[in-house]
Amino acid sequence: MEKLLKYSVLRYMPSKLSGEKINLGILFSEENTGYHSFYCTKNFQRIKYFDDELEKKTLRDFLTEIKEDVESEWNRENFDIDEFIKFYINSFCFEKTASIIYEDLDSMIESLKKAYFRFDYAKGERPSKTEDQRILAKLIRSSGTSLYRNKTVKGRFEEDIQYDLMTQYYYIKLFDFDGKNLKRCINTAKTWAWNCSHETGKKIYIIYRYSDKNPENKKEFQIIKNIFDESGAHFCSIDDSIKIVQGAG
User: Is 3 helix (H, G, I), strand (E, B) or coil?
Assistant: First the structure.
């Protein structure tokens, strides 16, 4: 029997106009086993940096209340994740529920926590590019979409172009900026942007991994982003891509 874990990410968005948001927690629900839990971020310093007007104690109490509500004895048998998340709107809201196939529940929960809350972990404990690729592949397959990994296709001049993930509808290329000299990455970005702008058959998602807490403040990163935006490719972080791939088509 296929084992399925549902989850939803709690995000804080102080202004819908700016569109800026930060992850606060992740809600898990496995209906067959009766497992329901809520993990909230441990990195309150990062939240303070994101919005210095958000009071730490008030936020901590708010997250604790959610955790106690989710994990209460009553909810062990009566919990409905899709109904629960409807009560949280405005600045604090849960994303639409996603589902993912798993083999080992504890391992899958840990992988999702690291994917959405990489800054809660020390640098050596954060997921690698290979681990990010694996979790994206799981999410895509869980949505019922067939998938190829490390697939080579022919470019405009019959040259070989390798994508990390490929479906019937889109290609995915993962960029790992951690520990890299971003100035040297600019020319690589130009090359890939050319590939993207000359691909007529499928959508292309350029997904980046970058542990800098505020990459938009880096001049070189902004240049790379502008290059891909002009190419027509969808340029996004590994965090945002997780939501995108289950609804892409």
Answer: coil
Question: What does the alpha-carbon distance between residue 64 and residue 66 come to, in Å, rounded to a whole number?
Answer: 5
Exposed/middle/buried for residue 115 (C-beta within 10 Å: 0-12, 13-18, 19+): buried
Calpha distance 89→203 (Å, rounded): 32
d(CA 145, CA 137): 10
Residue 225 Cα to chain centre, angstroms: 17
Query: Beta-carbon neighbour count of residue 106 at 10 Å?
Result: 8
Is a pLDDT exceeding 80 seen at residue 88?
no
- pTM of structure: 0.80
Q: What is the distance between the terminal CA atoms of the chain, rounded to a whole angstrom?
A: 27
Separation of CA 230 from chain center: 23
Q: Is 138 helix (H, G, I), strand (E, B) or coil?
A: helix
* Cβ count within 10 A of residue 15: 10
- Kindly state the DSSP code that residue 96 receives in the 8-state scheme: P
Residue type, 95: E
Both structure tokens of 159: 């040259």
Domain locations in the chain as residue ranges: 4-125, 129-247
pLDDT in tens, 121-176: 988 888 888 888 888 888 888 878 888 999 999 888 899 999 999 998 899 999 98
- Looking at residue 249, what is its pLDDT? 46
Residue pair 6/81 in contact by the 8 Å Cβ criterion: yes
Mean pLDDT, residues 86-110 taken together: 87
Q: In CATH, which of 3.40.1350, 2.60.120, 3.40.190, 1.10.10 is domain 129-247? A: 3.40.1350
The distance from CA 28 to its chain's CA centroid, rounded to whole angstroms, is 15
